[in-house]
Write a structure and sequence with these properties.
heterodimer; A: alpha+beta; 6 strands; B: alpha/beta; two-stranded antiparallel ribbon; 12 strands; elongated
């Protein structure tokens, strides 16, 4: 179970080694900060503005600390993300709009 | 009434994020003095209640659906927005808003508080679950928080005795000296730039007034590492569902038998005391059997909702949706549709009622449409009767029972068609509507509170009895009427039902049902079968003039084997996978969707599928020599 919660030190290490990437492409254990919310064709069904607003309302705002806690059983989708002090589940498709480093 | 009339009740509206403990606080404040209804025209629950302040004022409390924003993306959130803005038809504009926030998860809640301030109504913030927050090491500077936000702040613990005293006491001061509204109504849907700015402001206030412990809730983390594990998580979910399913089936049976026996005894009393005739038949077969057929579902509904409410309060339901999202999503269903669909194996009625856990109306409607395709327990007597009469009791591959295999096949076809229909429905009905993304907060685990569970169970049970009861009951009376009128002529030799409207309908339908192998006997039995599927078994006995009803199942089976071809029997099985043969289910669909249209859509598509399935089965079977 220990590997599920990488401690603070492990987070810092990861952060230093990872260049900007979409949260939807990151793996479990990833830790970082949100660089930007950029909805470019990731909004299947929703308008880009609507998806951006929904992500913002759930706390995905630039500068917030994020960590991928869990991945779904099939295709590692959806993912459970710690955003500052809340845990949000979302699909990788929508998480592609969250750029992190 | 408004604040200008000092003697009238004070109107308070509860607003907050999902999982803020809003409903628990509502239950703690109002206890059993609450009313659950529907807002007219929408399937949104309206919960209201009354409580007294220590100063003797009565406060009218309205529990609004949880939301992250007033931007209103679903009918539930529209109700919240309109009620908060005072635009909701038939609802008194609230004198004050009480924003409820989980003290351990304030970040998103504070953004909502800042948004609510723009509405221009007096506003107060309740930091709920303060006991858990303090235990976990949170420290709050309430004066600073109140000053920064510009609204009064109180703490509360909905689940502890005395946990809401501070809140209620504060209410008196606020009623005597209402807080000044922060300004004019200036709310407009925020742009993404405004959302960002408000969240930054909320983050700043949070940093200034609250000291957050460095580590998240370790218990939740440890539980999740097992419960959300890619392998164990699924295994545990299946185990939980297995127990739930078993409980709905087995725990309910003794009580259901008792209810059935009770109503039968009551019917027998009527039969003994009233002279034979129309009145006796109406009271015994129409009223008592009709009411009984509704109440008999109550144990299953109570047990099912006991599990659902426990899992919901525990925080596990959101996890179940997370685990199942990928599988359900493939068929165009929401992760949360899993539990309602599973419940429908027991009975579609509690299953359809359980779709209320799905927030989005379109996802909910899709789930309601396909729920009756899951093989419910009422189909079992019909399946068993026909299978044991027509399918030889032999083994396939040496160890698989052929009869069991057919039974399994019927279940499998039901599940497959449910997934297929939802896939098609998504593309047919919601083509122009965007697919809802799956985004869900996973709250920290919390022990469910017995009081909240009991209140929840009570309201669900009453909802079922009141709403479904009226419609189901009137359908039962109609079916009784069809099976009883006109009365048989003097000296009639055949069973009464063969002279009734049901029989006339059965004969009239014969040209239509001939291609699927049903003769008028079957058609007649299908009419009372509308009351509840298993009634068709007894009705078949009646039309073939066999005494003893369901107990004589073996005799009925033998009679059927003489009268029907194998092709007809198989066609009837295929028909029953889809047949919309249950007035109660249709009544609940009508109630839960709030529309006759969706009931008609359900009835129509299932009837079409049933006919098609029976047609194909009958003709293929005949071609293979089973005619």
């Amino acid at each position: 179970m220990a590997d599920v919660f990488p401690d603070v030190q492990a987070c810092v290490d990861l952060q230093a080694s990872v260049s900007p990437l979409p949260l939807g492409a990151a793996r479990r254990g990833f830790c970082g900060r949100i660089d930007a919310i950029a909805v470019n064709g990731h909004a299947v069904g929703l308008s880009a503005g609507e998806l951006e607003s929904r992500l913002l309302e759930l706390g995905f705002v630039e500068g917030a600390r994020v960590e991928i806690l869990h991945e779904g059983s099939f295709g590692r989708d959806p993912i459970a993300v710690r955003v500052n002090d809340a845990t949000i589940a979302l699909r990788r498709r929508e998480a592609m709009a969250i750029l992190v480093s | 009434m408004s604040a200008a009339e000092p003697a009238g009740p004070w109107h308070l509206a509860l607003v907050g994020n999902p999982n803020s403990g809003k409903t628990a606080l509502f239950n703690a404040l109002t206890g059993s003095r609450q009313k659950v209804a529907n807002y007219p025209g929408v399937t949104v629950e309206r919960k209201s209640g009354v409580f007294q302040t220590p100063g003797g004022r009565s406060v009218h409390l309205l529990d609004l659906p949880g939301t992250y924003s007033l931007r209103a993306r679903s009918p539930d959130e529209q109700v919240t927005r309109d009620a908060v803005l005072g635009h909701l038809a038939g609802e008194t504009a609230p004198d004050m808003l009480l924003c409820v926030a989980d003290a351990t998860n304030l970040r998103i809640a504070l953004r909502l508080v800042l948004e609510l301030k723009r509405v221009g109504r007096p506003l107060m913030l309740a930091l709920n679950m303060i006991d858990i927050a303090k235990k976990r090491g949170f420290e709050f500077d309430l004066d600073r928080l109140s000053a920064e936000l510009g609204v009064p702040v109180v703490t509360s613990t909905a689940v502890r005795r005395g946990g809401i005293e501070a809140l209620v006491a504060r209410m008196d001061t606020l009623i005597a000296d209402p807080p000044v509204a922060p300004g004019e109504q200036a709310w407009a849907p925020p742009s993404s730039a405004e959302l960002r700015a408000t969240q930054r402001e909320a983050d700043r206030i949070l940093a200034a007034a609250v000291k957050v412990p460095g580590r998240p809730d370790t218990l939740t983390g440890r539980l999740d590492s097992v419960l959300l594990h890619p392998v164990f998580g699924i295994v545990i979910l299946l185990a939980v569902l297995f127990v739930m399913f078993q409980a709905v089936f087995t725990w309910a049976t003794p009580v259901m038998d008792l209810i059935k026996a009770g109503f039968e005894a009551l019917g027998a009393q009527v039969q003994a005391r009233l002279p034979e005739g129309l009145l006796q038949s109406f009271i015994q077969n129409g009223v008592i059997a009709g009411v009984g057929s509704v109440i008999v579902f109550l144990p299953q509904i109570v047990i099912l909702f006991f599990f659902i409410l426990m899992l919901e309060d525990l925080g596990y339901l959101a996890r179940a949706a997370f685990l199942m999202d990928r599988i359900m999503g493939g068929a165009g269903l929401h992760g949360r549709a899993f539990i309602p669909l599973l419940s429908s194996f027991a009975c579609a009625i509690p299953g359809i009622m359980a779709t209320r856990v799905i927030d989005n109306r379109r996802d909910r409607l899709t789930t309601i449409l396909v729920a009756p395709l899951m093989t419910c327990s009422a189909r079992i007597p019909v399946y068993v009767l026909i299978i044991s009469a027509f399918i030889p009791d032999q083994q396939v591959l040496g160890w698989i029972s052929l009869q069991g295999l057919v039974m399994f096949g019927l279940y499998a076809v039901g599940i497959a068609s449910a997934l297929l229909v939802s896939f098609v429905a998504k593309r047919l009905f919601w083509r122009d509507h965007p697919t809802e993304p799956f985004m869900l907060e996973l709250p920290d685990y919390k022990l469910p509170q017995p009081k909240s569970i009991l209140i929840g169970l009570y309201t669900k049970a009453m909802m079922f009895l009141k709403r479904a009861g009226t419609t189901i009951f009137s359908m039962m009376v109609l079916i009784w009427f069809l099976a009883s009128f006109p009365r048989p002529p003097e000296g009639a030799t055949e069973p009464d039902i063969n002279y009734s409207l049901a029989s006339i309908i059965g004969h009239a339908l014969e040209p239509l049902t001939a291609p699927i192998g049903f003769d008028w006997h079957i058609n007649v039995a299908l009419v009372p079968g509308m009351a509840a599927r298993e009634v068709a078994v007894a009705a078949l006995g009646t039309v073939y003039a066999i005494e003893g009803g369901t107990e004589a199942a073996e005799k009925i089976g033998a009679t059927l084997a003489q009268n029907w071809s194998l092709a007809t029997a198989l066609a009837l099985l295929a028909w029953y996978i889809f047949a919309p043969q249950c007035a109660s289910t249709l009544a609940v669909i009508r109630r839960e969707t709030g529309s006759w249209r969706w009931m008609a859509v359900s009835f129509g598509y299932m009837l079409a599928l049933a006919y098609l399935a029976a047609l194909v089965t009958y003709n293929v079977a005949r071609m293979l020599g089973a005619g």
